[in-house]
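$ run holo --ligand "3VV" --emit tokens
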Amino acid sequence: MEAFQDHYDDAVAHCYGCGRNNEHGHQIKTCWEGEETVTRFTPEPYHTAIPGFVYGGLIASLVDCHSTGSAAAAMYRQQNRELGSQPPMRFVTGSLHVDYLKPTPLDGALELRGRIVEIKGRKVVVETDVIACGEVTARGRVVAVQMPADFGGAKAA
Ligand SMILES: CCCCCCCC/C=C\CCCCCCCC(=O)SCCNC(=O)CCNC(=O)[C@H](O)C(C)(C)COP(=O)(O)OP(=O)(O)OC[C@H]1O[C@@H](n2cnc3c(N)ncnc32)[C@H](O)[C@@H]1OP(=O)(O)O
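-- output --
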């Protein structure tokens, strides 16, 4: 199935978390499953916090890009638009909050499941569960904001 991130233009597909053109990045892929958005990612042994457990910064990074991608997809869906349609709507992180509920075992794939909590103007609030070995080990809340056309001097292509 095509992922949200497959629709980012080449020129802006370098994000460390979700850009398919960043060979050093996570290159996450996110899709709809009904009303939820889902990303699966398998941490490597070097993503260790303490032996056997996933580094919290990686978890935050996955929540971040899962949620900004979800925000974009939610806005397209709300406006009844195809994901690749023009003009593009891209989202950046306004705020990123993560509650680490339990240690996250470094043991196979993590599943991130996002819910759209609110869409208001250019803002989308996304809540994301991080699931490891069938248990929710972290929960994130992201305020994603539709990128202004002049963001950091970059073009919102
Ligand atoms: C990453 C570079 C990309 C460059 C090229 C872009 C191409 C993109 C293409 C494809 C995307 C792929 C990339 C995904 C990115 C992955 C995630 C990241 O790492 S993003 C990087 C980290 N984030 C930033 O660097 C944002 C820096 N901040 C800003 O630029 C501004 O502060 C911004 C855009 C977030 C908001 O500024 P305003 O002036 O446009 O909008 P206002 O009016 O302040 O806020 C709109 C609504 O959002 C809420 N809001 C804004 N910031 C908030 C915050 N910190 N906490 C809570 N709410 C916040 C406000 O309260 C308001 O909501 P109410 O209408 O009042 O309900």
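-- notes --
The longest strand covers residues 135-146.
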